[in-house]
Every structure is written in C-alpha cells, then in structure tokens.
Write a structure and sequence with these properties.
Blueprint lengths: L3 E8 L2 H19 L6 E6 L2 E7 H17 L1 H22 L3 H28 L3 H4 L3 H37 L12 H10 L5 H9 E6 L3 E4 L13 E2 L1 E3 L3 E8 L3 H4 L7 E4 L7 H6 L2 E4 L7 H9 L3 E3 L4 H4 L5 E5 L4 E4 L1
Parallel strand pairs: 8-9, 9-10, 10-11
Antiparallel strand pairs: 1-3, 2-3, 2-4, 4-5, 6-13, 7-11, 8-12, 12-13
Length: 336
C-alpha cells in the first residue's frame, strides 16, 4: 500500500490550488520529464493541504537531482529561469485587477513554469548526500539550491494575496469569502462569459472539499489514502543539531504564531517567512510537511535550532502546552 505524505498546508484560494495541481501533474513532466500521477488536496475553509505518494515524491526528487548532477549547466539554468519567472510574475502583480484580467493568459504562462522549477530545486536537495559524495561539491550545490529556495519562497504569500484581490474584484460585491472557491476553469469561463458559479456551490466547496489531481482535476467525497491513524510516535527528518525540551505552541497561521512565548516549540503544518520574529523566540520547530529545504529547515540552520520536518501529523497529535523533546539528530519527537 502506498505511503502518502503531506507536502504543504497553507491558505490558498481554490483557483491557486487547482492551478498548482495541474502544474504538479503536467508542467513538471514538461520541464523535468516526470510529473506526478496523483495529488490529493484536502481543502477546509480556505486552507489547502497537499498530499503526494512518498515513492512518487522520492522518484521526482531523485530524478531532478540526477539531472542536475549530470549537467551542472542545467542547475544554473533552472535557478536563473526560476528567478526570471518570479520577477516577471511580480510585474503582473503590480497591475490593477481590471488590467490583470486582460493579461491573465500571459501571466498563466509564467505561473505554469514557476511551481515545477521551484519544486525541482526544493526537492532535489533531498538526495544531495547520495548523488554528490564529494563533500566540497555537495556543500557548493546545496548552497545554490538553498539560496534559490529562499528567493522563491517570498513570492507565494504576496501572490496569493494578489489572487484573492482579483477574485474579490470579479465578485463585484455579490459574493463574500466563498469567491475563493472558484476553480481555475471557472475563472477562465468568467473571462469569456462574465458568469460565476452559484454562491451556494462555492460556499460548500470553500468550507470543505477534497480535490483529486490526475490527468484532470476532480472533486470527490472521500479520500481514504489520507485518513491517517493517530499515533504518539512522531517521526520526521531532523535538521540542525542536538535536542531541546519545551512546551508546544500549535500555530496554523500568523496570528497564532504571534502567541509564541520564549522557549516554546512551534508545531505547525509549515512555516512562512513572515513568522521569522516568532521563530527566533522559540526553542525549535516541528512541521507536518516539508524537506531539508523547507522554510523551517532553512531557518533552523540559520538560527542553530533543532527542527523536525515532514512528520505528516504532528500538528494533529500535539496540543498547546504539551511538554516535548525535539531530537533533531534522530528525527524524533517524544511527548514527555
């Protein structure tokens, strides 16, 4: 039976979620020669959680890492293209919503490239020890991947804010927050017809839905693959050195992260750049999603704090105030 892993959880409109899913399946294949066969998205009140098969994720990561190792110029070209693509997307984000609608299909061409380029860089690092046995070369490549990852991470939150601004514009005051339930095809249909789906359909989808991305995207009622069993054993990938003991602070968004007290352990689905002030106050981090180039992992190395990423379900098991030991050397969280 396939093992499914949580890749990210963040506040996304269904428009962005839908588009990213198609890019994981199709655009990754166009750029790197391999795309994912299936992505599952659990969507609840505007929070999208993405799951992929571990074997597919590992295969994609290793495939891209091998391509970079065999052709160093490809690594440099991928980093350059990612930076240029993000810079171009920022230009579209400067437009007014009305002007953006006229330029949407040109914008989409760059968005279509951004996600796979970003993913290739972020996930290739997972196999860097295996593919680059020479320590100096491995450190050099890792530094390039990490710097590209840090640059690109900063686009996602502002881009989503811009997308939501555009969605509010087309709602014309007739829809509330449920306008964020519009899919990419429905948005494109609006550009042609100026018609949007029924408000109740969008509201239901925004409140709770499951999206399956394969050759085509589709909504389903249930996905047993991601029905994780609760356990007191929490394992992931350790980043940083040593161990630390502290009380848990569960945070799913920036407002909750602001409650972090000195010496607490931040437990979350994934961290974001705007959390850095509160991460500095904490003693360590535990995330459900991510790999060694996840935002939390990068910050852990920079601040020399223990961190465990990719636990899948730490944020579902641990509660505020729980006393835990974060063992970064062994990738284990122990509830005390």
């Amino acid at each position: 039976m396939s093992e499914w892993i949580k890749i990210w959880t963040t506040e996304y409109s269904m428009f962005s979620t839908w588009l990213f899913c198609q890019e994981f399946v199709h655009s990754c294949k166009e750029i790197f020669g391999y795309g994912y066969n299936k992505i599952i998205i659990k969507y609840v009140q505007g929070m999208a959680t993405a799951y992929r098969r571990k074997e597919e994720n590992d295969f994609f990561s290793k495939t891209v890492a091998n391509k970079f190792a065999k052709n160093p110029k490809l690594l440099e070209a991928t980093i350059t293209e990612l930076r240029e693509t993000i810079d171009k997307i920022r230009e579209y984000m400067e437009l007014s919503p009305g002007s953006f609608l006229k330029e949407y299909y040109e914008f989409k061409k760059y968005h279509w490239k951004m996600a796979p380029l970003y993913m290739g860089i972020a996930w290739a690092a997972e196999f860097i020890d295996e593919i680059y046995p020479e320590k100096k070369k491995r450190a050099e490549v890792f530094e390039k991947l990490q710097e590209a990852r840090k640059f690109s991470e900063k686009i996602y939150h502002p881009l989503e804010e811009f997308v939501q601004k555009v969605l509010a514009y087309i709602a014309k005051g007739n829809y509330g927050i449920e306008i964020r339930g519009v899919t990419t095809p429905e948005f494109e249909e609006y550009l042609e017809t100026k018609k949007l789906p029924d408000k109740e359909i969008l509201k239901s989808r925004f409140e709770s839905s499951i999206l399956i991305a394969e050759k085509e995207n589709r909504f389903v009622d249930f996905a047993p693959e991601i029905d994780f069993k609760e356990t007191n054993e929490i394992k992931g990938k350790g980043v940083g050195n040593g161990k630390v003991i502290g009380k848990v602070r569960v945070a799913f968004n920036l407002e909750e992260a602001k409650k972090t007290q000195e010496g607490e352990i931040i437990v979350t689905t994934m961290t974001r750049p705007e959390w850095i002030v509160y991460m500095k106050k904490s003693a360590g981090f535990i995330t459900d999603a991510g790999g060694i180039l996840a935002h939390a992992a990068i910050v852990a190395r920079e601040l020399n704090k223990p961190c465990i990423v990719g636990t899948n379900n730490a944020s579902e098991i641990l509660k505020d105030g729980d006393l835990v030991e974060v063992d970064a050397e062994n990738g284990v969280v122990r509830k005390l």
